[in-house]
Hints:
The complex is a heterodimer. Chain A is an alpha/beta fold.
Amino acid sequence: MTVRIRVIPCLDVADGRVVKGVNFVDLVDAGDPVEQARAYDAAGADELCFLDIGASHEKRDTIIDVVRRTAEVCFMPVTVGGGVRTADDARALLMAGADKVAVNSAAVSRPEVVSDIAGRFGSQCMVASIDARQVEEGCWEIFTHGGRTPTGIDALEHAVRMAELGAGELLVTSMDRDGTRDGYDLALTRAIADTVSIPVVASGGVGNLDHMVDGVIKGGANAVLAASIFHFGQHSISDAHDALRAAGLLARHNN
Amino acid sequence: MAETIALIDFGAGNLHSVHNALIATGATGVVVTADPDVVASADRIVLPGVGAFGACRDALVGINGMIAALEQRVRQNAVPFLGICVGMQLLADKGIEFGEHQGLGWIDGTVHAIEAPSADIKIPHMGWNDVSPTSGHDLLEAGEAYYLHGYHFDVTNTDDIFATTHHGMPLVSAVGRDNIVGVQFHPEKSQAYGLAFLKRFLEWKP
């Protein structure tokens, strides 16, 4: 056997509260992040992801407090993204109990931050967020600031650069699919997964369990991230594990 | 009297998570410490660690008297010792990661980068994988635990290997000898399996 496909629920957080975004607009408050994290820990989530979606504009201390309180009651790996600009930002999150930090906008404007974080804390904790939109068949562009800002940077080239600078994982989000429930952009995920030697997390667009299976089999992802299908009880973590196993993939057996 | 469990603070990123997990198992005597005197009189010792071998080693050696305290308390007085992730890798003779660095040298072997045997094996080794006991050690039960590492402990004597896992090739999951145990996986991040492992360590009488 080898390492299992990871199922990762993602909680979008702003001002210390969980919100659910549809294409990053029209936010609806959906509760306390620590309580939600605890529920996912009990449900056997393989990892948890917090995305601090207000963080590019607002203060940082709230998310650090959320991470610290989560680490007191949850014993699963936690990745935190949103507003991480420097190695010191990363350090504060890691010391609070995060296992990995995801860097997005800062890694575009100042790619050295990736090698700074990998050099100080190890590649294993340095996740590069790749937010991309398709511009033509087989070609995707990097967007920053929650998908609002185009950069003119080719997504595949950026992914390779992130890996070269020491990223230990890529979180690949299709901004075209995010919030649509139409499934991951499998061509994007596959193009990146086939190019880099580090793990790839598929993100953006999950509407059913088949989408998660496709993310692995067709997209080549090592982990599948989803939000709403878990948050609103449409499917459990166990359902996702079962679906992966039914498709012949390795997934964890829940306790 | 409650035991004192010294959790060594040399700035490792997983220090607080390990602390939280030990408390969750019901441990009452956990002391987070950078004081060699506390380590030299502790009943159990836990060494966390994540990131680069050399950086962790330098931070540990940088605490005046810490290595001597560990040598005395673990090697001479034989109190139970647990190393986690890089805290386990530091048991090696040396680590090769951004140069060559000397380890504690308690378990013969070298820490070096995992080389993927094929393109579908992604490095770092990241996620839940087997813990497959090889020796019937009291602390190690078969199960699934969380791994997060790009370097691995290439152990010289197979007798020192307590458990293995597999990611493109066999990787050492747990090592040890006598009162010493080290695990590559993260018990503090391995939910029920990890907490049960820590509880066994706290009750362990080697």
